[in-house]
Amino acid sequence: MTSIGIHDLELATAHHVVDLTRLAEAGGTDPAKYHLGLGQDQMSFPAPDEDIITMGASAALPLLERNGIEGLRTILFATESGVDQSKAAGVSVHHLLGLPRQVRVTEFKQACYGGTAALQAAIGIVSRFPHERVLVIASDVARYELDSPGEPTQGAGAVAMLVSADPALVEIEPATGLFTDDVDDFWRPNDSSTAVVDGALSVSAYLDALTGSWDDLQARGGPGIDDVDRILYHQPFTKMAKKGQQRLVEHTGASLSTALTAAEQAAAGAARDTGLVTGSIYNRRLGNSYTASLYAALAALIDHDADLAGRRIGMFSYGSGSVSEFITGIVQPGYASRRGAERVAAALEARVPLEVAEYRELHARAYPSAADVETPRITRAPFRFAGLQGRARRYE
Ligand code: CAA
After folding, report:
1. Please, what sign has the CA dihedral across residues 376, 379, 385, 386?
2. Is 80 a catalytic residue?
3. Would you say 323 and 113 are in contact if contact means Cβ atoms under 8 Å apart?
4. Is 130 helix (H, G, I), strand (E, B) or coil?
5. Distance between CA 260 and CA 279 in Å, rounded?
6. Which residues form the Hydroxymethylglutaryl-coenzyme A synthase C-terminal domain (predicted)?
């Protein structure tokens, strides 16, 4: 059977950043609650001329510059912060990237799980058309109401992945664990730009979905816990990955490190390090990027773990509502040539800090709804949202 998986990937984020020490102090909260209690240091925040489309196209551009467009006939765009109820965001990305017309484009939605659904669909397409490659883009802006418990877990980011046969980065294995449960833990009504969330329920639903999808993986003949070298989790905030790891330890009886910081890791003793600290390097600074979050964790692991060749990675994808999947993949020998730590560090450093008052003003600004709107030119990204013309979105 042909090996299929992620050939290359790239991460992009938004123009602005909010420092969580500043946010905590402005709200009269102990900053340790955000840094240690949630495991978050910063959150990316988009400029008015940025959205899921500009971030997604910015992630995809260098990917296609490195790999060319030969065989590219499908774009699958996953998001839970969609900008239109009808048109797939990927169609605008297709235009911005100047791709040929002979490409199918569609959008995937199921909260943060959509990126994994798109990845699995891409693998299906490549198994049917082995000479084709699929561009998967997971892009989101996580928004909660100001002064709500979810506020410090906002963020923004996009990951673009090229899925192909004989991938250079990670072969995705066929056995997979699934778990779906109709639960109202987090959702975004059509008339709302912010998510509605039952925080405590969302945490317990996530953990139940983790054991549920793990058990299904075992029932489907997937690898046991001792055969998984690294484990990555969807990270709405990085402490959630630690909670997931703690649950997996209880559930399997394995001795895995649940350290979330380098200091905790040094004190972890004999417990096996499965990459919890390394896999959270980017998400600590991006905040929640919903569909992109798990793949931002994958990017962080690939960029910072020098001993990954031939290793098996487990990846837990959770989308509130809820649908989840536990997949595994084998890191390919040449993965080091795909590493992009310097690029990502530069993008994170280049973000322009917002004072809390500026951030609150930007957050409160309503989404443009007039028929014709010109957005101010702010972002330095390769693409920008120029505004509305006859209510249609315009990008340049
Ligand atoms: N120093 C250190 N730690 C502190 C502290 C301090 N001074 N003060 C509080 N803490 C700790 C608490 O002990 C707690 O830690 P544990 O969870 O380990 O017990 C942590 O900080 C959070 O504090 P609270 O329990 O008081 O919780 P909160 O009211 O701040 O809400 C939350 C936390 C529910 C996660 C909230 O941020 C939220 O609603 N977030 C959005 C929803 C979400 O992300 N859910 C996750 C699962 S759903 C999912 O994964 C899909 C998705 O992407 C949304």
Report:
1. positive
2. yes
3. yes
4. coil
5. 10
6. 177-249, 281-335
Give yes or no for residue 1 having a pLDDT over 70. no
Provide the token pair at 206. 């996530």
Per-residue pLDDT, averaged over 49-55, amounts to 97
Question: Is 234 in the active site?
Answer: yes
Query: What is the distance between the alpha carbons of residues 236 and 142, in angstroms, rounded to a whole number?
Result: 9
Cβ(225)–Cβ(254) under 8 Å? yes
SS3 of 98, please? Answer: coil
- Could you count the other beta carbons within 10 Å of the beta carbon of residue 221? 8
Q: Bridge-partner residues for 159, per DSSP?
A: 11, 138
- Identify the residue whose tokens are 């957005």: 375
> Is the distance from CB of 357 to CB of 139 less than 8 angstroms?
no
Residue 230: in which H helix or E strand, if any?
strand 230-233
What residue's CA is closest to ligand 1, atom 8? 33
ipTM above 0.90, yes or no: yes
- Alpha carbons within 13 A on the beta-carbon side of 229: 12
Residues within a 6 A CB radius of ligand 1: 30, 32-33, 36-38, 112, 149-150, 153, 186, 197, 199, 202-203, 206, 234, 236-237, 240, 288, 290, 318, 320
Q: Look up 251 and say whether it is catalytic.
A: no
Q: pLDDT (tens digit, 9 = 90+) per residue, 68-86?
A: 999 999 999 999 999 999 9
Mind listing the pLDDT tens digit for each residue in 117-135? 999 999 999 999 999 999 9
The strand pair at 312-319 and 323-331 is best described as: antiparallel
List Cα–Cα distances, 175 to 27, 165, 230, 296, in angstroms.
Answer: 46, 17, 17, 22
Check if the beta carbon of residue 296 is closer than 8 Å to that of residue 11. Answer: yes
Residue 274: how many CA atoms within 13 Å on its side-chain side? 26
Closest atom of ligand 1 relative to the 288 alpha carbon: 53
Q: Tell me the one-letter amino acid at 128.
A: R
Q: Is the peptide bond before 322 cis (omega within 30 degrees of 0)?
A: yes
Per residue, what are the HEC states of 275-321? CCCHHHCCHHHHECCHHHHHHHHHHHHHHHCCCCCCCEEEEEEEECC
* Mean pLDDT of the 91-117 span: 98
